[in-house]
Amino acid sequence: MRPGLLPVLEWTRYVPRGNTSRVRAFIVRGAVEYELCAEGGQMVIRRTVLVISEAARGRVSDAQEIWKAIASA
User: Which residue blocks in 1-73 are alpha helix, DSSP H?
Assistant: First the structure.
């Protein structure tokens, strides 16, 4: 992926898992807010544009790699 480009992700409706979602980091790009969250023993990237959607739910290392790409875009 080239620097400055957001990764292509499949965004789905956000479904909470576990009792607590802890926001570890967030970035605002125009009218879009991205959050890297720890939730239910997994990491998830949430995106808010009127509604909350999610992508990259799973292992910490996988979500953090995608988060780095979003943060550097």
Answer: 60-72
Question: 14 near 53, Cβ under 8 Å?
Answer: yes
Contacts for 47 with CB less than 8 Å, ≥ 6 apart:
11, 32, 33, 34, 35, 53, 54, 55
Q: What is the residue whose two structure tokens read 């605002």? A: 28
Q: What is the pLDDT of residues 40-68, one digit of tens each?
A: 889 999 999 999 999 999 999 999 999 99
Q: Is the pTM of this model over 0.90?
A: no
Strands 12-13 and 21-29: unpaired
- Tokens 């023993």 correspond to what residue? 41
